[in-house]
Structures are given as C-alpha cells and as structure tokens.
C-alpha cells in the first residue's frame, strides 16, 4: 500500500516525508495504522550513525496505533486492537528461549540493521528497499511489525500517549522493576532526568524507595524530578553528586541508574553505591566509549554493575503492568510527554 | 602468656620471630594453639603497606589449630576442638545482620586496622601493643581470636592442611558456589591460576561447568589447572585470551573470575563474557588502580560485574561444606598446598 | 529491681498484675522501661497452652519502650534510646548465620520455653523464677531483653504505637516485602483481615500490587481493608472466595497470604493461585492441625506454598523500613491500633 | 504419507499397530523419522484415562529421531538433524513469554487434548482424525511435531538412547538443576527410584549434594540408586523414612523430590525437610488425590513445597546440557534404559 513515511537518507540530515510503498502482512506480521510515535535518543543515534543503521531507512521505534490487518498465524492481536510497538527479538536464541528477549543474541541485527526475516525489509521508495528500524519503522502513517513487536493495550487509555512505553519509558521503569527490584525503604539515585531517568524515578517511587535522589545538569528537569517524587536533587554542574549522596545517605545508595550515556556519570553512579549496592547501566554512549572504574571500590564494597537493555522487559507483560500503575495514579508517565 | 610470633615491623621488610605477650581470652574470645598458617597475597599487601595496616603488627590470617581455652559466653567451640581461623566481622551492621558478613561495613577496620573490640589489640612486645591482623594474627605459636573468626572442623582431616580454607581457598571456591552459582553445563573462565583461581576452577568442576577455560602466564600453573579439571588452557603471554575464548565458546563464557588483581586482565574477564554473562572481581590491585571497560559491551550484552570478598562465605557454613566435598574427592584442595 | 508485671499462672486464666523482681542486665542485655505493649494471638495461644509455654510466665512480646540501662558489650543501643522489642534468635545456627533469624533452629526454645541463656529466666516472684516470653516478657513496667531482641527506632514517631511492629505487623508486611516480593502490577489476595492480614495488605498496596482482594468473615474488617487499599472484598461466609477470585482475575492470583490459621482457608489460599503463584502460610492453628491439598492442583500449575515466621524479618533492618514507609504515608499501620 | 503407528482406541486396552495417514509439515512443523521412543507413566495415565485424553489417539511423548522435512519458517532444525521430541507449549501466555514454557497456561490442552493449532490433529485412520499426544505422537514410524517440540542434539551420541530425555529424565534432573538448585554440600532425599527419581538423584550427585538418601519399596531399585550415587537407601516398606532421614541428618534434609505420585509419600517428603527446606512435587497421582500436611510443620520450619512440571526445563537449552553432562560421565542416564 501507499503510505507516507519520514525517510532518513543521509547521516545527520533531517528526514524528509515521502510517499513510500509498504508490503502486505505476511505470516506472523501485523499492519498497524500509526496514531503517534515517540522519538528517543536511539533515533538520533541511528540518524547520526553512531550506531551503523544502513541508510536510507525509516526510523521510529516507539509507535502506537490500531491494528488494521494481521497475517496468517497471528493470534495475540486482531483488527481494531490498540497496540504499542516495541523491540524485535528472534524468539529462538538462548536469551529469548529463557524469557530474556531484551538480551536477544540477534538484537542488534534485528533492531538496527533490519535484515531479519521477522520482518525483513518491507518498505520501498521508487523500487528501492529502505531499512526497517526496530522491526517497525513507526515514523510513517502505517507500520508493518512482527507479532512479537506488538503489544495489545487497554482501549480506555489515550493511545496517543502510549508510544514511548515501547522503548524509553519501559527502559527506565524496567531497570527498576525488573532488574534492580529494590526493597521498599531502600535508597535510590537516578543519574539523568530525561524520559528514561524519570521513568526509573517514578518506578522507584511507586514501590516505596526512599530516599530518592535525582541528579541532572538542568534545573528544570530537577524540578520535574521533585514533582515526580525525588526527595533530593543535585545539579551536577554545581555539586559533587557522589559527595552529596554520601552526606545524605551515610554510606551511599543501595541502587543507582545511569541514563545519560556519559562515562564520567557512570563512574559516579558506581562510586555513590553503598556496600552490596547495584548500578544499572542504561545510557548508551557512542560505540567505543570506555569508563574507568576503581577496582578496589567495586571489590571491597561488593558492588555490582549490570547492563540493562529495554528495561529487561517482556513488552507483552510489562507494558500492560505500567498502564495499570498509570491508571492507579502511581506512574504518571504522561507528565513526561509534552 | 608468652608466645613466639613473627613480627612485621617495617614496610617491605621480612618479619622477625620474637617473644611476645598474648593476653587471656575475654568474653567471646578463643585461644588457639596454631598448628599451621597459610600465607596469601593479602599478607604481602599488608607487609608492603599497599593496604595501610599499622605497623608493627603480627600478620597471618589463614590459621588452623586447636582450641586451648575459651572466654565466657563462647558456645560454638570448646577446648580441644580443631578450628580454622577466618576473617572478622562486626555482626551488627546491615550486611552482617542479613547474612553477608564478607560485606561487613566494618571489614577494613576489623581486619586490616585491628582496632576493634572483637578482639582489640591483645599482643604486646616489651609493653607496646602490636596490631592484630584479621582478628587472629596467626603467624605465632598461639592466636587469640573472636568466636566469629573461628570455625570448628572435622577432626578426621589433617589439620595442617586447613589454614588456607579460611581465606584463599574459600575466596575462590565461594565466588563460584556462593556468588556466580553456575548452572551445570554452563561455561566458565578462570583468569589466574594461583591458589584462589584454582579453587574457583575446582569448584566449577565440582558442580559440572563445561567447558572450563584456565588462563595464566605460567605453563606449570596451566598444567596443574588441566589436572584439576580445565578443558582448555590459555597462556596469556602467547595468546589473546578473549579471542581464544570466543573461538572455543562461540559467543563467550557464561561466567568468569578474575583473580590476578591486574586491571588489563579484569578487562579481558569482562570482554570474554557472553550475553547475560557474569564476572566476579576477586583479585585486589594496589589501592587506586582503575579498569577501563567498554560501556556498550557491558550494556548491550547485559553483562554483570560484581566484587566478591572472601567468596561471599559465611565461614562457619561454607568451610565445612568444602571439607565435605574434599572428602568425597570433588575438591582436592590439598593439591594446591605444597 | 521491683517491677509490676502481669503474671499468667494457669492455663486459660486471666493474668494478675503482681509485684515481681527483675534482675540487672548482664553482658549483652538491655533493660527497657515499657511504654506500651501490643497483644497478639500468640499471647493467647500461650495462655491457653496451645503452645506449651511453662507456667507461671510473664507474657507479652510486642513491647516498646525506652532503654534504661545496658549490660557490658551492648553497642547497638544506649540509655535513652527508643526501642521496639522483637523475637529472640540464637545467632549461631545455620539459619541465623545466613541471615534468616526468623527460621532460627532454636526459635521455639528461645521464644516459647524461655530457658536459653539469652536471656534466661530473670524474673522472680517470691523467689520462684517465672518463664520469660519471646526474650522480653513485655507485660510489665520494665523488661529485660537480649541485644538481639531490641531495635532502635526513630524518636519522632509516637513510641506508644510501635510495639506491634515487633511481631504482628512485621509478620504481615514482611511476608509480602521479604518473602513473596510481588512485582508491581501483580495480583494479591489476603485471607484474613486482622492486624497481620491488613499489614500484608498495606504492604502489597505500598508496592503497587493490583488487584488486591481481601477475604474475611466480618464486614467491618472488610470495610477497613477497603479503606486501606483493597480493590475487592469477599465475605467468606456468603461467597466462595476461590470462585470470586477466579472471576476477578481470570486464572487466579499471583500471591496469597493466609493469616487466619484455619485449615480450610489455607486450602482456599492455595486453590485461588494462578500458574506459578505463591501462597504464604502465616496463621498458626493449634498444634497437629492438617490441611488437605489437591496434589495435581499444586503440581500442574506449579504452585508454591511456603511457611513464613515473623515476616522473614531481620527486625533491626525491617522495622526501621516500616517506620520510614509509615512516615511517607505509605504504610498507615496506626489505623490498626485503636 | 502412510506410516505405522500404535493406536490406543479404548481405555486400558493395549494399543494396536496400524497403518495410518500422516499429513505433510505445514508452516512451523517438522517431520521426524522416529528412531526410538521412550514410554513413561504419563502414557499409561493417558491410556487408562486417568487424564482425559480423547481416544482414539496415538500416544508416545519421548520420541527421538531424524528430521526428514521441515515446513516454512522452521529455522532451528533442518533435514538430517538428530532430534529429541519434547512437550508442547503455546509460546504466547505469560508463563511462555517469561521463559517458563513448562508452566504454559495451555499445557493441558496442547499436550493431553491435542486440539491446538501447533500442530492440531494431523493423523488419520480411515479418514477419522486421531488425537495427537504431546504435540508428537511418537509411537509411530514418523511423527509430525511443532518446532517448539523439537530439540536438536549432538550426533555423536547414540540417538536410540535419547527419547526419555524429552520427558522423564529432564523431569527428574530439571527438578534438581532448574528448580531446587541445591548448594554443593547440601543434603538431598529422593522419594521413588524409577527413571524420574534416579534422574533427580544423578543430577544431585553431579553437583555435589551430600548426603543423598534414596527411598523406594523395591530393593533392586535401591541397589541401582546406590550405584548411581546414593549415600544411604531406605526401603519404605521396612523403615520409617522420615525417622531414618532425621537420624542421618540431624534436623532433616535441605531438599527432597517426590516422584511416586503417592500422597503418603509426599507427606513424608515434606516432613523429612529441615528448616527452610524445599520439596519438589513431581509425581502425578490420579486427578482429585489430596495430601494432608501438618500446617505448623510447614509454618514453623519455613518449609516450601512447589510443583514441578517437566523439570522446569526449556528443552532446547536443558536437553543439550544433560547430554554434555552425560558425555563427561557425570550423568549416566543410559543406566536407566535397559
Ligand atoms: Zn533471541
Ligand atoms: Zn528508544
Ligand atoms: Zn558488619
Ligand atoms: Zn587471604
Ligand atoms: Zn539460630
Ligand atoms: Zn505476635
Ligand atoms: Zn504458554
Ligand atoms: Zn513423560
């Protein structure tokens, strides 16, 4: 079918909206009319070729919309369903088979290179195939996704808000709820107060972390962090976050998340931990970036550092949970969406 | 009482055996006649003041012996019991109260500075108090330890072998059995084949890890690793361990332990992991040493790095378990002791 | 010293307040002036000899008060501290050493028989020793407790409210926060809405469980459950709880707690679980009571049933956490105390 | 195609080998030439209609064979591969999506009723469709299975041995390696020494459990248990297993598995646990059978009872692990196959 899509043709250039051809859903595929699509840092990384996505491509990986047609064998959604689009995974590697699709061994190829069978390249412009991004390419009027990319959601919630649940918001919230799993009453530091960081912060708030300390270099973000539940805020431009965290907590925080992708901030996120504390590495810097960690600091205090992709979420399970928390007023992610 | 002890008086100098005075066991203390004491890297670190142990001191932290006298309130051991001496912990901090004494918030002060009440300085030389090391100072004919330092052991096993169970051997074996807990059939890489590394390797073997890959720069150690169960060995002087591990395993190993305290080796221990792999940081470099890690490597593959002190062992539980495995022929740690 | 205490002299009889003699705190003991003491089912069980507590005894195991004097070696509290008194544990068994004092192998002897050294019988009436209960015997003007029984608490909170944190409230809340650890957004059923059940319910609410279903046979308790966060209530006299829960949740609840000690209710708590659901057994029936469970129901749906004593709490860690949640308005346990 | 298969036409009657018609593999299906098929208790249960499998049916659920043809979209196996056939699961329910296919919410319908699309009924006899069992119906010369049922295995191992890995052997071994995960050196009791029980016992041996206590009512099975690693055996006809276990272990065993499906034996498997011990319920009795458990025994000692289906195995991951252990001599399951 003929659709309009935002085509990214060259490194760092703005995309141009063009007429392109989308193929019909094959076995296991779902055609979605896009209602809204979030934009996150990962789209920028792809556009700027910090991650080598083959261009030209149609980006967009936080789509929300309505199912228009399903291919053979699709059972989890049907025409008319409201859906959020999330990441692709292969379903057959060790990570996928054991319930960890976010650590899919084929994640990079499926989501960034777009050359897999689930779905492969399905968008053409003047006969030339364009790269599919995150198995969806949601910057278009319609998107063709695999069944594994598609999450059926509650029709009572405004669909135009839900796209970012498919990536940025589940990434932050999941790092807390799925990975770190803090005990109620344990302490938490959030490095970076963009959408991902604040999603982590709201999740920490929802399950009773205290104190919650938010770190950023923009005062307006810190004010929002406070409104969303931070007990303390630190402007990293003016203050030494590690020092402030130690003053506030005594020995450091039980859990931290690093969402900025800045190596020196990750260093702080580790240094600010207490004994047996855990840091979640969420923010992706340019490929090749390294962090320098003090070995004895990690060793002697038994700290743990762990990478977290997509919030360790199984989207079909986790996104409906987040929507439930939202409806209860415990996870006001709409505050993050202008 | 009058005893003989090896006194370390100056940085980097050999100790001298001298006549010193040991006090009587107070409430909660145990007097042990030392039968044998292991020596590990940590004694050297203390002697060389890489860790600031106040000198003069009596070092030694892998003692084994026979209980001669117990102070009031001691219930877990009695005169005549065979015991291994292990590390000190406070018993009252959050880590201790929740069953993680190896992450005691007062570990450094209790084990390296020796100025705590459990026991405090109890050895004198010409009236001057000497620093107690690891709550035991086992380089003497007798040692005075706290009840928490003392582990009652099976009398049927040769006591002169058991000292290193109190530190080096439990450190390596515990990192596997208590921390990483590999599934039978999962892959394992051991960086460094000294006593700690080979203890980890034997533990991995005992619970069915495969393949087991041993890395060192000494061929004789690698031969011993092979005899103890390594399926493959890599001499890091000649070969790129990360490359070899990838060739052997496809995507990398599920678990690795770093026992050398060399930053570049730790880097390899992390790089050689597969998706969702875990690296245990065991080897202690000089204070201030840093490691440089590739952030995307940790993030995208969801790797975990964790510090492990004393093998995450509760000595009173874990040392008897190791002795049981030894008696079954599954943990031949006597092979490590010349 | 001379104190007044409520002495229970005979099975099933009311206690009588009498003048008794309390000894001085020895090594490791703490003298507490009692400000308030909760009463829970366990006191009744002891009085009625369902559990064989040797009489005469001074009962009371949910004391709160102010430290008046400490014995030698006590470090965690000092004169003037506000404290809650909790259960006794030996500190030396496998459970205690690994951070699970609530599963102390000597729990029964220490808490119900009172004949242990920590502390032993320390109260006399006319020269005859009375049984100490839960290492405290808080139904008196003063109590003598072991350091392990004593939890220092925030002075800003009304001390007269805090006694029940030492047993009933930590039991319910801990079964949720320490044992079941439900994911935010998972479902929860609370069988029995007394203080223990409602504490579990408030904890489930605090960490985002939904829906929360409360079951009891008293409408007034169900109304309170609703005020404290239940989404649905079921009066077990009028309705089949298992059926209602299946109607509300589809396949059953993820987690349930049984707090009534009634075998048929425990059966329901297991039957109402979904696949891989977990039931916490909290309520203690008379010794010898059995429950009849359908084996295939447990097997095929991979259900788990687990006993939980004292909420799997390390009181020194958990009670301050509960007070923090209370101060944030997330755990209004004062609603349970008239 | 025309094949020969063992048709079960009536309750309790022996099957008859007949000529039947097998359809071609559709999308996602795999045609396997059967080399061998194990028989386990579950086939008998189906034949005897203790579980209501619609008859006529072709039973058999432990097939091993060679792939002859694959349908569209099948990627994990190809013609000529050696495969083991295991259970069916839906891939889309909460259990499946989170990596727990053995707790699939559609397990019963898929494996026992055979009326699902993956694959549906695909065998005919004189035009009439026969029920497919466990998505395979391996009692035939060929079987048609879904890709999720099929596990590619090492060609170096004798294929005719491998069928039981797909059910009975993974069930026993997995209950230990995937569910209970005993610490090396912890104690283990195996109730029932058939193929499932002895698989559990061998797994416990492979990872260093000790002591291992085997219970059965047949001396020849107990002798085999001893050869495979039991430290002690108990003939339940002559001795009280709970009493013997307490004598051998002091407080009871850390882990037990119940493989007989007899309620009174399950009761023993729970009673013989120590503090914080765990019992795995594996044996399936006739539908409706109940077990009577002492509530205080479970509560006070914090015991856990949990149902385990198919050894909590993801067959594609676990069966190759078992084959690796077999090749190392640590899991001699061929001893179970006459
Ligand atoms: Zn995958
Ligand atoms: Zn994104
Ligand atoms: Zn401590
Ligand atoms: Zn050492
Ligand atoms: Zn204990
Ligand atoms: Zn109570
Ligand atoms: Zn399923
Ligand atoms: Zn079977």
Description:
Four copies of one chain form a homotetramer. Chain A is an alpha/beta fold. The first copy, chain A, has two domains: 2-166, Medium-chain alcohol dehydrogenases, catalytic domain (Quinone Oxidoreductase, Chain A, domain 1, Alpha-Beta Complex); 169-309, Rossmann fold. In chain A, 27% of the residues lie in helices and 27% in strands. Chain A has helices at 41-47, 94-97, 107-113, 168-180, 195-206, 219-228, 241-249, 263-271, 295-300, 315-327; strands at 2-8, 16-22, 29-38, 57-58, 62-70, 82-85, 123-125, 128-132, 142-146, 150-152, 188-191, 212-216, 232-235, 253-258, 273-281, 290-294, 304-307. In chain A, the strands form three sheets. The first copy, chain A, has a six-stranded parallel β-sheet, sandwiched between helices. A five-stranded mixed barrel of chain A has the order 1-2-7-8-4. In chain A, strands 9-3-5-6-10 form a five-stranded antiparallel β-sheet, with helices on one face. In chain A, β7 and β8 (128-132) form a beta hairpin. In chain A, α4 packs across α5. Chain A is globular, with a radius of gyration of 20 Å. Chain A starts with a strand and ends in an 11-residue tail after the last helix. Chains in contact: A-B, A-C, A-D, B-C, B-D, C-D. At the A-B interface, β15, β16, α9 and β17 of A face β15, β16, α9 and β17 of B.
């Amino acid at each position: 079918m003929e659709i309009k899509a935002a085509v990214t043709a060259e490194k760092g250039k703005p995309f141009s909206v063009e007429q392109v051809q989308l193929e019909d859903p094959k076995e296991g595929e779902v055609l979605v009319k896009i209602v809204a699509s979030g934009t996150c840092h990962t789209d920028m990384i792809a556009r700027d070729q910090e991650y080598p996505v083959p261009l030209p491509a149609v980006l967009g990986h936080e789509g929300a919309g309505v199912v228009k047609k399903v291919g053979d064998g699709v059972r989890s959604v049907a025409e008319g369903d409201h859906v959020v689009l999330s990441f692709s995974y292969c379903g057959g590697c060790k990570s996928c088979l054991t319930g960890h699709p976010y650590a899919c061994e084929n994640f990079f190829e499926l989501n960034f290179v777009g050359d897999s069978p689930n779905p492969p390249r399905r968008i053409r412009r003047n006969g030339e195939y364009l790269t599919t991004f995150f198995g969806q390419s949601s910057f278009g009027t319609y998107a063709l996704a695999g069944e594994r990319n598609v999450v059926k959601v509650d029709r009572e919630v405004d669909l135009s808000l839900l796209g970012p649940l498919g990536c940025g918001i589940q990434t932050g919230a999941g790092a807390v709820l799925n990975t770190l799993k803090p005990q109620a009453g344990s302490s938490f530091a959030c490095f970076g107060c963009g959408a991902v960081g604040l999603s982590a912060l709201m999740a920490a708030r929802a399950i009773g972390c205290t104190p919650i300390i938010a770190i950023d270099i923009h005062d307006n973000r810190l004010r929002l962090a406070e409104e969303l539940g931070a007990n303390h805020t630190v402007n990293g431009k003016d203050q030494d976050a590690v020092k402030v965290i130690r003053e506030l907590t005594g020995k450091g925080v039980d859990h931290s998340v690093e969402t900025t992708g800045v190596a020196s901030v990750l260093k702080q996120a580790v240094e600010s931990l207490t004994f047996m504390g855990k840091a979640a590495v969420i923010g992706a810097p340019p490929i090749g970036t390294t962090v320098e960690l003090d070995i004895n600091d990690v060793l002697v205090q038994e700290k743990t550092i762990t990478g977290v992709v997509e919030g360790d979420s199984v989207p079909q399970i986790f996104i409906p949970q987040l929507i439930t928390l939202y409806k209860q007023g415990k996870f006001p992610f709409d505050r993050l969406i202008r």
